[in-house]
Every structure is written in C-alpha cells, then in structure tokens.
Amino acid sequence: MRIWSIHPKYLDAKGLVALWRETLLAKHVLEGKTKGYKNHPQLNRFKAAINPVDAINYYLNFLYQEAKARGYNFDKTKFNPKAKHPQLTVTVGQILYEFDHLKKKLAIRDIPQFKEIESLEILLPHPIFKVIDGDVEEWEVR
C-alpha cells in the first residue's frame, strides 16, 4: 500500500486509480470495517490525526478532484466530501523519496508522464500535508 504524500497531479492514470483504491481500503481500516492492513505503517500519520476518518476523507476528496479534472469517473459516494480540513505533516526527505520512487515507476510504464515531471525542481505535496524539514519518514519501507 502506498498513500502518496506528493500531489496527485504527478501520478499517471494507473497510479491515480491505484491510489484511489488503496486509500479507500485505508478508509475502511480507519473505520474498523476490515481486518487487513490494520497496522500498516503508512496509516500511522492518519491515525495520529485528531479525527483519522476525516483526514482520510479529506485526502480522498483531492484524489476525486484530480480524477474529475482528468475526466475520470470516481464514485463520490465512497467518501465524505465535507470532511474537516486537518493538517498533517510530511518531511522534505519523504517528498523527495516518493518523487524519485514515482519517476522510476513512470520511466517504465508511462514515458510521456515521466518526461513531463522528470526535471521538476519544486514539488507540491498532497494538499493535506504541510512540508517540514526532515529525512525520509521512519515508517517508509526502503
């Protein structure tokens, strides 16, 4: 499971669809509706939020908006679009790590998308995250 910290606009179609599905699974975990992935390290940052379910719904809302802008038909009934705006943090090191990871994936599966993002120097996080100083997050599997 990868719940990207980088802005969803950088993802290719496959990546955005996979992120949507994985985040919906994460939502079910946070709602206590599934037994799998309960202790997945990427969920810790959402679990640490004052309201983890609001946090994951807010995250999903931006995925939905990105999909809609691309003409995809994601199901808006799968999340609460009125979720409160929590602010989570992510380190600069994590953003850079994920961006490098994404570029490696895109170099194999979506060359045009890879070429579009390969030389970017300013990277935006997913809007739920405030970027702070630091190395790759401890929960990241390297």
How would you portray this structure in words?
This protein has 142 residues and is mainly α. Helices cover 46% and strands 6% of the residues. 27% of the residues are buried.
Question: Summary?
Answer:
By secondary structure, the chain is mainly alpha-helical. It has one domain (8-132): Endonuclease V (Orthogonal Bundle). The chain is built from five helices and two strands.
Class of secondary structure makeup: mainly alpha
Please give the CATH architecture.
Answer: Orthogonal Bundle
CATH class: Mainly Alpha
Number of domains: 1
Instruction: Note the run of SSEs as H and E.
Output: HHHEHHE
Report on the biggest sheet. Answer: 2 strands, parallel
> In total, how many beta strands?
2
Question: Secondary-structure blueprint of this entry?
Answer:
Blueprint: H1 13-30, H2 44-47, H3 52-69, E1 88-91, H4 92-109, H5 111-117, E2 129-132
Parallel strand pairs: 1-2
Helix pairs in contact: 1-3, 4-5
What labels would you give this structure?
single chain, 142 residues, mainly alpha, Endonuclease V, two-stranded parallel ribbon, 46% helix
